[in-house]
Every structure is written in C-alpha cells, then in structure tokens.
Specification:
By secondary structure, the chain is of the alpha/beta class. The protein contains eight helices and seven strands. It has a single domain, classed as Rossmann fold. Strands 3-2-1-4-5-6-7 form a seven-stranded parallel β-sheet, sandwiched between helices. Strand 1, helix 1 and strand 2 form a beta-alpha-beta unit. Helix 1 runs parallel beside helix 2, helix 1 crosses helix 8 and helix 3 runs parallel beside helix 4. The longest helix is centred in the middle third of the chain and has 27 residues. The chain binds NADP nicotinamide-adenine-dinucleotide phosphate. The site of NADP nicotinamide-adenine-dinucleotide phosphate has 30 residues, from helix 1, helix 4 and helix 6. One of its GO terms (molecular function) is diacetyl reductase ((R)-acetoin forming) (NAD+) activity.
C-alpha cells in the first residue's frame, strides 16, 4: 500500500474519473473524503470504500462556491488527521457552436466550475498542506493543449488549469506542496454519455461512429481507461513523483505529444 496513513480529498468523486480515483487511492491505503455536487453519489463512493475495508467520508459541495469548499476542507481536517493529497476531478464539458445564443452562459458556467472551482479547491488544499507538504493533482485535458472547434469555453478553461497549476507549483514548492495536472485523451465516462450526440453532430457522423473515430487517431490504438488514469494519479500522489511539480502530463496514447 503506497498511501497508508495519508488523507486524500477528491472532487467529482460521485462519477467517472473522480470516483475511480477515490476508489484507487483508498485501495492504496489513503483515507478518502469523496466530494461531489451530488452528495448522494459521493456518499455511494464513500460507502463502497468502507465496504471494502477502507476509511472514507463524503461531502456535498459546489466547488465554485468558496464557502462550500472551505466547509469541505474543514470537514476533511476534522475527519482525518492531516490533508496530504487533493485531486480536482470535478468539471463540466459542453460542445456548442461558438456563436450559439447561450454561448455566454455556457462560457460563464464552464469558467465558474472548471477554472474558478479548481482555483478555490487549490486554495483549500494549500491551506490544509502548509507546514507538512502534499500533492495536488488537477485535471486539464488534451483540450488544454490544443483548441478544437465548438469547444471554446472548455478548451479555454483547461488551458487555464495548466497555468494555474504552474503558478501554484512555483509559489509553494518551498513548502513541499507539489502541484501537477493530467491532460487525458478520451475516457468513456458519464461525461461522454452526455455529449456524444453533440460531438457526432459537430463531426457530421453518427453517435456510434464517435469512439471508433477517436481510436483511429490514437497511436496506441485504444481509448484511455480508468486504470490508465488512476495509475498516473497514484504516481503523482505518492513519493515516487517527489521531484515533479508544475507539470502537465499527457495521457493520450500518443495522440498529443506537445
Ligand atoms: P463526469 O463523469 O461528468 O464527472 C464529473 C463529476 O463532477 C460529476 O460527479 C459531477 O457531478 C461533478 N461536478 C460537476 N460540477 C460540479 C460542481 N460545481 N461542484 C462539484 N462537483 C461537480 O466527468 P469525467 O469524465 O469523470 O471528468 C472528470 C474530469 O476529467 C473533468 O475535469 C474533465 O474535464 C476531465 N477530463 C475528462 C475526459 C474524458 O474523456 N472523460 C478527458 C479529459 C479530461 P454531477 O454529475 O452531479 O453534475
């Protein structure tokens, strides 16, 4: 067990990648606080960890609300001895034409959740790690490396997360608080269930053609899996990556090499 005695907070832990991270960190011995907008789904993740013999608690919070984030950080401090790892998985994604009528609303909401939410969670994480250090892992995307059409708000928010990561990493390196971010390619999660039709529409293909089309453009010939992404999260959370901070790591099967 690589994280025995450590405490990890994971946002977006009720679904997709966040849930997979919470379960994997717990398997490696971490005490986990599962955080999600939907408290019931976070509680399900925590329950699954406890049933498997781990230690976990759950909290509902909108990560774009400062008070909610600070309350959750306090809960983490109360539940467990210290805060060592914070994984920022919560995020939203909307595919829409740049000139769509409600594009301003989508822009504001995407920036609020993806960028401001990650910023607020990083503040909470840093405060909890001062004095003993820790590892913060943010989620950018391959869309944080290359802008694509009908994805302006999402791409801008994910580029922003890389800048935020580098800035905090530089500011808190001397406190031994490491901050890195992961830029995955496509992983089949509930996020994709919600947006596959919009993606198909923008590419003029059927929804069934979407995933095979992605695979064609991935040198390693397959989509990213939960195992792939949690392997990297575990590496960044553990001492194995103790000399790494401020990095944006591609996890794209070779599709993105810059
Ligand atoms: P997901 O299955 O939709 O999970 C996202 C989770 O975040 C959901 O549980 C959602 O709660 C929660 N959430 C949304 N808004 C929130 C808020 N304001 N406060 C707290 N929680 C909130 O998505 P995913 O695919 O696992 O994505 C996880 C992260 O990886 C995201 O940052 C995403 O951009 C990034 N990523 C994903 C992919 C991919 O292909 N899946 C690729 C690259 C990067 P509700 O369900 O209750 O709304």
């Amino acid at each position: 067990m690589r994280l025995k005695g450590k405490t990890a907070a994971v946002t977006g832990a009720g679904s997709g990648i966040g849930k997979a991270c919470a379960l994997r960190l717990a398997q490696e011995g971490a005490n986990v606080l599962a955080i999600d907008l939907d408290g019931a789904s976070a509680e399900k993740t925590a329950e699954q960890i406890r049933k498997a013999g781990g230690r976990a608690d759950a909290a509902a919070a909108d990560i774009s609300e400062k008070e909610a984030v600070m309350a959750v950080a306090e809960k983490a401090a109360k539940c467990f001895r210290s805060l060592d790892i914070w994984v920022n998985c919560a995020g939203i994604s909307v595919i829409q034409p740049f000139l769509a009528e409600d594009s301003e609303q989508v822009w504001d909401q995407t920036m609020r959740v993806n960028l401001k939410g990650t910023f607020l969670c990083c503040q909470a994480a840093v405060k909890g790690m001062l004095g003993h250090g820790g590892s913060i892992i943010n989620f950018s995307s391959q869309s944080g490396k290359k802008g694509t059409n009908q994805y302006a708000a999402y791409c801008a928010s994910k580029f922003g997360i890389r800048g935020l990561t580098q800035s905090i990493a530089a500011e808190f390196a001397e406190e031994n608080i490491r901050v890195n971010c992961i830029c995955p390619g496509v992983i089949l999660t509930p996020m994709w269930d919600k947006q596959v039709n919009d993606y198909a529409k923008k590419k003029h293909i059927t929804p069934e053609e979407v995933m095979p089309r992605f695979k064609e453009n991935i040198p390693l010939g397959r989509l990213c899996t939960y195992q792939d992404v949690t392997n990297l999260v575990l590496f960044l959370a553990s001492k194995d990556s103790e000399y790494m901070t401020g990095q944006s790591l591609n996890l794209t099967g070779g599709a993105c090499t810059y």
